[in-house]
């Protein structure tokens, strides 16, 4: 599906003279600009004006290129939910069947705070194996993150996937949604689930000091070295849950195992230890699978959130009115997906590919899949 087809059914929220510039052309101009380095509506308008001759190869531009105020107004009133549906449909057509680990996590768009309104908090679903964002859901404030996670899960097909979420997503309703969508779950456990967290801490503490008796315990260890730091991670996974109180076992849908990760860090001769606890469904059978899933979850921080901040300068952006912050977030993820799927310059960084798209019109057109008019 081409980008032109993706936006073909999008309804224009404007009326009368406000429709002077074609909506789909404006979206494609904005996407081109963001792909090539634009971070604000002023950047977008300047880039479109500078590249008007090139744009006319692919777009009609009956009234030329819009001003930055026009871009801002249009994306402010464009329904973010509908625009996000366009993104999800495009990604689904590109990715096809999803498998492996799908990490869900939130990121605050710090520059989007608008007066008394809290900053926009984006919940993203990230396929760790392909490095692609599968969808996003926007909420105002981290306090609504659970509702955002539920809404995002409702849009995903998760058959054959392992969904990982940090402790805020350790909720029975969320676990049930994942199971209902055909997936398995691995959820971090902290004191927001007090009884469960206490039971896991006591069980693993006693097991490490006195042994686990006849319970089969799968173990897997990894050692990582980076910039003078040595981190040893010991993973334990237990599928026999007969020791766990029945009300807790029955509270969690298809609960099939619990785990602990003990991280021992050595930095400049000083050693620190921390433990993290998890629950999971039947998709995790042993400690190595548990270790890989828990480790893969952090790909969303390194490969999505960090890239949005460093390559796309998301936190520096001061777009804050109406639907504009969420729509601009979707444009960044459109652009990031195009750059990540690039096969022409696979050895170049994403930042370098973004600059290359700005310099080389043919490369830019190939990324966007644009066909000349007529």
What does this protein look like?
This protein is of the alpha+beta class and 374 residues long. It has 15 helices and nine strands. It has a nine-stranded mixed β-sheet with strand order 3-2-1-4-5-9-8-7-6, with helices on both faces. Strand 8 and strand 9 (270-280) form a beta hairpin. The longest helix is centred in the middle third of the chain and has 17 residues, at 194-210. The model has no long low-confidence stretch (mean pLDDT 93).
In brief, what are we looking at here?
Helices cover 42% and strands 21% of the residues.
Beta strand count: 9
Kindly estimate the percentage of residues that lie in beta strands according to DSSP.
Answer: 15-25%
Order of helices and strands: HHHHHHEEEHEHEHEEHEEHHHHH
Give a quick account of the main beta sheet: strands, pairing sense, barrel closure. Answer: 9 strands, mixed
* Contiguous uncertain segments of 5+ residues: none
Q: State the strand order across the main sheet.
A: 3-2-1-4-5-9-8-7-6
Q: State mean pLDDT (0 to 100 scale).
A: 93
What is the C-alpha radius of gyration, as a whole number of Å? 23 Å
Q: State the secondary-structure class.
A: alpha+beta
Characteristic key phrases:
single chain; 374 residues; elongated; alpha+beta; nine-stranded mixed sheet; 42% helix; 9 strands
Question: Which helices and strands occur, and which strands form pairs?
Answer:
Elements: H1 3-6, H2 23-35, H3 41-50, H4 52-55, H5 68-77, H6 80-95, E1 100-109, E2 120-127, E3 132-140, H7 145-153, E4 161-165, H8 172-180, E5 184-189, H9 194-210, E6 217-226, E7 229-238, H10 246-251, E8 257-267, E9 270-280, H11 287-297, H12 299-310, H13 324-340, H14 350-359, H15 361-368
Helix pairs in contact: 2-3, 2-13, 3-5, 5-13, 6-13, 7-8, 14-15
């Amino acid at each position: 599906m081409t980008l032109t087809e993706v936006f073909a059914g999008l309804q224009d929220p404007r009326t009368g003279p406000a429709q002077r510039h074609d909506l789909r052309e404006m979206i494609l101009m904005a996407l081109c600009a963001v792909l090539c380095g634009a971070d604000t509506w002023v950047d977008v308008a300047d880039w479109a004006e500078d590249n008007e001759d090139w744009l006319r190869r692919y777009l009609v531009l009956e009234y030329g290129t819009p001003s930055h105020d026009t871009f801002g107004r249009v994306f402010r009133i464009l329904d973010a939910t509908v625009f996000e549906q366009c993104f999800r449909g495009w990604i689904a057509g590109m990715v096809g069947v999803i498998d492996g680990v799908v990490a869900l996590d939130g990121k605050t768009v710090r520059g989007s705070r608008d007066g008394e309104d809290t900053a926009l908090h984006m919940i993203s679903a990230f396929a760790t194996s392909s490095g692609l964002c599968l969808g996003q859901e926007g909420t105002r404030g981290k306090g609504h993150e659970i509702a955002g996670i539920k809404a995002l899960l409702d849009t995903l097909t998760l058959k054959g996937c392992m969904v990982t979420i940090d402790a805020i997503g350790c909720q029975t309703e969320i676990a049930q949604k994942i199971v209902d969508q055909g997936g398995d779950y691995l959820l971090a456990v902290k004191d927001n689930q007090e009884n469960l967290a206490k039971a896991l801490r006591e069980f693993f503490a006693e097991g490490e000091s006195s042994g686990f008796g006849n319970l089969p315990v799968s173990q897997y260890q990894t050692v990582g070295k980076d910039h003078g730091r040595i981190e040893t991670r010991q993973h334990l996974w237990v599928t026999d849950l007969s020791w766990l109180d029945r009300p807790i076992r029955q509270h969690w849908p298809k609960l099939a195992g619990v785990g602990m990760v003990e991280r021992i860090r050595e930095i400049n001769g000083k050693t620190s230890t921390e433990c993290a606890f998890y629950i999971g469904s039947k998709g995790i059978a042993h400690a190595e699978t548990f270790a890989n899933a828990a480790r893969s979850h952090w790909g969303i921080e390194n490969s999505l959130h960090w890239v949005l901040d460093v390559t796309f300068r998301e936190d520096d952006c001061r777009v804050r009115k109406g639907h504009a912050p969420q729509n601009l977030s979707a444009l960044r993820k459109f652009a990031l997906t195009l750059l990540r799927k690039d096969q022409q310059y696979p050895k170049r960084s994403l930042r370098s590919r973004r600059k290359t798209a700005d310099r080389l019109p043919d490369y830019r057109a190939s990324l966007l899949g644009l066909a000349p008019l007529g």
